[in-house]
Amino acid sequence: MTIERQGRPDAVIFDMDGTLFETDKLLIPVHERVFRTLREEGLYVEEAPPAERLLSCLGMLLDDIWREIMPGSSEAARRRADELLLQYELEGLLAGEGALYPYVEETLQQLKEDGVKLFVASNGLEGYVKGVAEQKGIASLFDGVYSAGEYNTASKVDLVARLLQDHHLDFPASIWMVGDRSSDVEAGRGNGLKTIGCAYARYGRASELEDADVQINDFRELLELRL
């Protein structure tokens, strides 16, 4: 294991939505299609929740999201919503919809050139998380892309623990967890990592990042941090 390099990390684990990927540019039109199809299929006939409500739930496990925004929905409706969400998100990505936050690609490139191992840990579906990385041209920069959908983990704390174990990342390595929601901060702190809150994201409450070791307002700040 490499020795900590004066505050620079040996590895950085990133959330996807609201951290690397500006999700609303893809998810708002997808949201409309999902609920239109559910209504057409008779699986959820209540009024569709506002897209902003779905965006505010990003970072949660999908089943918890559907229970939150589709109260009283059946398991069949939630499973179908999973299928439709993935289908429409992938179609949107293939069509070029959605965008990385400013300076994400070049900052990841620089970290990679500096010898930092890069990972993704997301509570999203496997096909979506890997699809964003592939379609936006950053998949090759990561040493691993982990999702709750692939590993069926109960929390992001568990998902990050699995990642750390698989890649033999432990003390004395310096490892950072970077994300925009309280679940990211909890995942980092729960695994003994330094936590960085992305205050530029708009999907959660500012208070969710209060326990992060540091907050950033521009992705490029990662290159200057010493923790």
UniProtKB/TrEMBL annotation:
Q: Which InterPro entries match?
A: HAD-like_hydrolase_sf (IPR050155), HAD-like_sf (IPR036412), HAD_sf (IPR023214), PGP-like_dom2 (IPR023198)
An annotated GO cellular component: cytosol
Do the record's keywords include Hydrolase? Answer: yes
> Where does the source fall among the domains of life?
Bacteria
- Gene3D superfamilies documented for this protein: HAD superfamily/HAD-like, Putative phosphatase, domain 2
Per UniProt, what is one GO molecular function of this protein?
A: phosphoglycolate phosphatase activity
Q: Which Pfam families match?
A: Hydrolase (PF00702)
Can you supply a Gene Ontology BP term from the record? DNA repair
Q: Which UniProt keywords apply?
A: Hydrolase
Q: Can you say what this protein is called?
A: HAD family hydrolase
Q: Supply the source organism's classification.
A: Bacteria, Bacillati, Bacillota, Bacilli, Bacillales
